[in-house]
Each structure stands twice: as C-alpha cells, then as structure tokens.
Amino acid sequence: MSTVCLWYVYMVPANVGDFLYDLVTHKKQNKISAADTTCNLTITSEANRLNALGSHTVARGLLQSEQIYDNAGDSYETAVNLYDFIYDCEYESIADEFVQGCQQTPPSTPPEGHALNFKGFPYNGGATYNRPSEIAIDEWRDQSTKIKATNMFDEGIRELSNLLLRQMLNWRTLRVGCSVQSCGGGIIASVACVYEKPALSPGDQMYEVGKPCSADEECTAYEPAKCDVDGMLCILDTISSITSSTSTSTTSTTVLNTTLSTSSLATTNANPNTGT
Asked: Any signal peptide, and if so, which residues (predicted)?
C-alpha cells in the first residue's frame, strides 16, 4: 500500500489568484490537514507540493463554478460526485524520475497504470521560474479553451489538449502526486504529475454531468465522504476503505456503470509549450 498524505484543500474562493497566493499559509489556517508524510523533501519543496495540490483543486472547483471555458467561450457543464484530490507521496516518488536534472522532455509512455502530465521550463535568458508547479497546472487546465466542451473522451479529439485537461477532471482519480525540480536557482525547471488512474479511452466519461454536491449524502462515489459546499467538491473522510493500486480502487462504490480502461495511453506533452 502506498504512503498517502491526507492533504485536502477545502476552499476554492472565487478569486483564484488570492487563493493561490495564500496557499502556502493554509496549513496554519487549518484549511489543509496533513498527516505524517514520507514525501521526499530533497526534490519537491513543501511550498511546491501545496501549490501543485491547490492548483489541481482549483481546476475542479472552477469546473463546479462553471468557470472552465471551451473554444467558443461556453462553460463546461458541472459534475456530480466530483471529489477533491488526495496527495499521494508514492505517486510523487514515481514522478521524481521524470524531473531528474530538470529534464525538458517527457517519457515516451507514462508509468504503467497511471496517467502523467509533464512540462519542461527551458533556459530563458536567465529569468527564473517562480512556482513552476502552479504555472504548469494552470496551463494544463487552460487547454480547455482549445477544444469544444465535452464530458467525454472523444476519439475524434485526440490532440494533446484533450488529454492534459482530462487527467485533472477524471472523476475516478482521487490521488495525485507531483514532482517539481528547479535547477540553477530556478532558471530551468520541470514538473511531472502522476495520476491514480490510467488515461481515458475513447468513449469514456470524464465525469457525469449534473449538479455539484450541496449535502454530504450526495457524495456516493467513494465513501465515507462529505460535501464541501463552498468548493462544491466531495471530500473523502478517510482512506481506510480504499486501497491504492496502479489502476483500481477495490472497495469503492462508483456511480457510473462503466468499464475502466487499464491501458496506459501516452498522455505527456511530447512538444511542451514552455513559455515563461
């Protein structure tokens, strides 16, 4: 069983910028609860870890508040039974191998049984990359504007933008771990995030369209759980009922009658947009 850090972000304020700016202090404000962790602090700092977790939560919170837009400016539809992320130290350790030495290219395939998002930040005239995890995850989220809004993985929409966004909004995924490497004082960097579930296959639902939770009893995909009515996301109360494996959650109750894919599609950015 993997080592799982119980880190949840409970609030997704309307002003996302303020939320991210204040993320590193949320722990003191009891908005993030942390269990003992064996996460490797030699690669990813706690600040980068919290930024990575918070930015993923922001993506799901924006979906629930109808603030993720497509290429026509229309909002993506909201989801039922959408959960906040749990940070997983084992997945972070898997991601570590993809950022060693601030490498700039992703692996040709993701780790077996998991989806992977990757971004490299190249040398840019000596400018430093501050909070690279936040920049990378926000960029993955903003891929929504390149495609038509849909809750499905469409075989006809196989471009990278479709894949990057859907790792973050796949309702089956509860756990994520990210590794952030900065080199030369931050003049180059790389970010890799490993997701609990493998990439979606054509025809899979990213999530079930419906009203976000407003009461605990509406959170039925994974139990026991409660509803964060402010963020409109379900929060898993405990991890005791769910085992961490590469592709399945053996004791969870799911609301969609779908067959989960066990294939690992290549979901990394083979030609990462490295902007500043």
From this structure: none
Cα separation, 244 vs 256, in Å, equals 20
pTM, to two decimals: 0.74
Can you state the angle between helices 132-141 and 160-169, rounded to 10 degrees?
Answer: 110
**Interstrand relation of 175-183 and 86-88 (parallel, antiparallel or unpaired):** parallel
Residue 199 CA to residue 193 CA, distance in Å, equals 13
What would the mean pLDDT of 205-224 be, rounded to a whole number?
95
Computed over every residue of the chain, the mean pLDDT equals: 74
**The pLDDT of residue 121 is above 50:** yes
Quickly list DSSP for 60-104. HHHHHTT--B-TTSPBPPPBSS-B--EEEHHHHHHHHTTTGGG--
What are the DSSP calls for 4-30, one per residue? Answer: EE--------S-HHHHHHTGGGTTTTT
Residue 186 exposed, middle or buried by CB count within 10 Å (0-12, 13-18, 19+): middle
Taking domain 4-236, whether its CATH number is 3.40.33.10 is answered by yes
Q: Where are the domains of the chain?
A: 4-236
The CA dihedral of 129, 95, 270, 72, to the nearest 10 degrees, is -70
Q: Helices 160-169 & 46-64, crossing angle to 10 degrees?
A: 90
Tell me the CA end-to-end span of the chain in Å, nearest whole number: 38
State how far the alpha carbon of 165 is from the alpha carbons of 29, 44, 110, in Å.
Answer: 30, 23, 16
Is 162 within 8 Å of 154 (Cβ atoms)?
yes
Q: Give the pLDDT band of residue 256 (cuts 50, 70, 90).
A: very low
